[in-house]
């Protein structure tokens, strides 16, 4: 059973966008934490360029003086990524149960971090950023806030997908932050896009956005999410075997290079994933990835004829990954449709302090945060690495 690229794009927009609440009430992250039997808190900090960020915290049940840990989500996501699978699986709860002070970041533009000192989210100026600014400003502000709040000298960082890209930006562009990071665990890092299969439709969309990102500042996918809600009610039901097989096939066709493998998402979790996603995204976040894929480089945003204004150069500068001296742990999924093993291996070759490089052969991109086996396959290993090193 094969899918052409046009069908895959339709799947991405209409079938993988599972159940969305049109007007979610309250703070869903705090609700998840509370329903799992933990105490949650909301904290706020402001970036140097004026964005107010919401940081969620899980208050540790055991006060044993362990260092704080920051968890950072991926594209179109929120802090909920590290909680959705519940207290028996999710890494945030695992860390909290072992005495870590867990802080969950929310990048600018997601539904928990929508305020700015000057601009509103209806302003095009609000959306003038890519994952470069998320790394350079957001992660710096979150790191500084957590260290000041906890009075710790260092912290641990665990990031997924775009969260890893942004962390690489921070540590290479502001190398003074390396001394603040005890360990950096990068799950599915999309820095280099070597030897990836190209969907012509997706490629064309990204090319169009790259040409017009001055006019199209952000995408609001709420309407598409609502359509996906209705479709998912029909095909993502575990009490209908045939329909669920179709749901599984469609999801794996989008996120995995092997659509015949097991879908590792709990059936009770699957219909609710999109509830916790964030439907707005800056077009520059998408086009920055596209630019790097075309150039086969990991470098700053290409403003084209305006590059000289930004960089005093006609081309954007590469990120100097040799400046990342913090201990780094890299994790790649062997069936990841968005990130190739060659790309992660090349990233590894450029980082001077890689402590571990691991390929999980049967996983897809989303298994790092949604797999029901993630605690046994990966999270316990991350915990072991954290516990093995003390101040």
UniProtKB/TrEMBL annotation:
One of its GO terms (molecular function) is hydrolase activity, acting on ester bonds. GO terms for biological process: lipid catabolic process. The active site is at 161 (nucleophile), 336 (charge relay system), 365 (charge relay system). It comes from the Eukaryota. Residues 1-21 form the signal peptide. Residues 31-85 form the Partial AB-hydrolase lipase domain. The keyword Lipid metabolism applies. Keywords: Glycoprotein, Hydrolase, Lipid degradation, Lipid metabolism, Signal. Coiled coil: none annotated. Belongs to the AB hydrolase superfamily. Lipase family. This is Lipase.
